[in-house]
Amino acid sequence: MTDEMIKQAIIGIINDINPDEDTSNIDAATRLRDQLDLDSMDFLDIVMELRKRYGVHVPDTDYEHLASLDSCVNYLRDKMAGKELVS
Amino acid sequence: MSHYDAIIIGAGMSGLAAGIRLAMYDKKVVVLERHYVWGGLNSFYQFQGHQFDVGLHAMTNYAPRGARGLPLTRLLKQLRIRWEELDLHQQGHSAVSFPGLKLNFSNDFELLRSEIARAFPGQIDGFDALTRQVRGYNEFDLNAPTLNAREIVESHTTDPVLADMLFCPLMFYGSARENDMDWDQFVVMFKSIFFEGFARPQAGVRHILKLLIDRYRRAGGELRLKAGVSRIITDGQRATGVELDNGETLTADNVLSSAGLVETGRLVGSAGLWPADAVDVPSTAGADKMSAQQAAGTAALRGKLSFTETISVLDKPARDLGIEETIIFFSNTERFNYAQPNDLCDTSSGVICMPGNFNLPRQPKDHLVRITNIANYDKWAALGSAGLRPAHAVDVTSTADAHRMSASKAGQRPALPYYEAKQHWYARSCDDVLSHIPDFRPYVSLVDMFTPRTIRHYTGHEGGAVYGSPLKKRTGESGVEGLYIIGTDQGFLGIIGAMLSGISMANRWVLQRDNAAVETT
Asked: B26, B215, B509, B515: which to substitute to probe chain A, counting the most A Cβ within 10 Å?
């Protein structure tokens, strides 16, 4: 999975969590929380969806790595390697 | 024998919401409901061809589409429900009506503020300070100390009548405590009613329940009706499953119970289930006393507040009679007394709901006035069932007699069988709202009424306690591993609160734990 696809995977999950959210202009370097209406319950869902869709496990202690799209990519690059994007 | 990741007791709002969360993430989950219909406290029934709601007057916590950071938005995200699907229509305006004083409010908070500035000009600064404290408080912090709301409110306002007028709607819509509330619950209710406000779907509670059931089933959850739980099975340390009324046994890693604190304790069958630290005791006045009471048993846990509700079907819309409000919270005495009455009912205060006065796209088929009053479960339970009519019935024709009876025999009424008591209190209930709305009685074509007995029967809550125990357990811990409290007695209030309760407990005790467990394997 390319870096761009990892971003798409995260955005796809956010779109499913909150269909009313505009995800077309997310700044990859800025914290997702600062741009979108995401609380700790939603981060749990991002983690749960990553596990459900991609079989990727994110331990509680690693939640901080999901702060921005860029940090997601860095953190997930190895874990998502070889996986197919789920739409 | 089936083994589940989680068994959920009760198909009310909290149980269904918890079930959706767990089923969504592929947990094997079953919701067990004793009755043949789901909904719990918020349910529905048909009566003589009419469709009535139970419980729900309004959904609190209204939020416009896309509003950020509000409970309704959190709920929609967690359950993957789109805002449009709720089909919410806002109230017109509502009111708190006391002798000689009326405060209108709507989903625009400024209306309430301007009404308070008008009616209590000396109190507006205090009200603003209270508002700021409410706004700044995080009611979802499950580990915050339990404080008494009245102390805090009265530190801001020096007029006890204003305090009572603020407490009145908040208590009626959620307080299990007499004449006070836990501060966090006050905040939940204040935000949900005054900041956010009322709305309802065109089709009422049926619509919300249908959404939940559809979501739950689509996610693969199992719902069993007429499957009452008679016992929660433990191995001494942990809950391991449940036994059903029919003797069947189901095992599970987790049991989430919306039955209530006392009721769940009883299902475990151990008098020692609830150690003194298993409930949130208000940290100020009376803490020592409370611990002693707990040691003595579950008396302090038992909810005392139950209600009657009358439903009057009018032959024309309430607006045509000059009733403009959507909901009126009233007290006929200057000081509002939110406490279990000595008589069957206390009709000197209550809630009047005109469901047709929401801004609905279509006028509902039935023009209703619903009146809720505080009632005494024990008094209702003690009535003989002689002359007991089909579950809810009250005859319009005989209410005229009841009116005469209540006028002539006030104070020296003999003990009445259940059905006659309903006639009597229906009439009293109507009489006592007439200083708040025009006389609607001549236009009533059909009447129904439910009582604390009805509530007990359909919810299993001891004492017909609509809002459960006065003591809550916000972390959901029961004192038994693997057994968690959800719903009213976990402490999030209102319909949205109940659903968020189920969601947050399912997240905390099942999904997060499950995610943490992956690390160690």
From this structure: B515
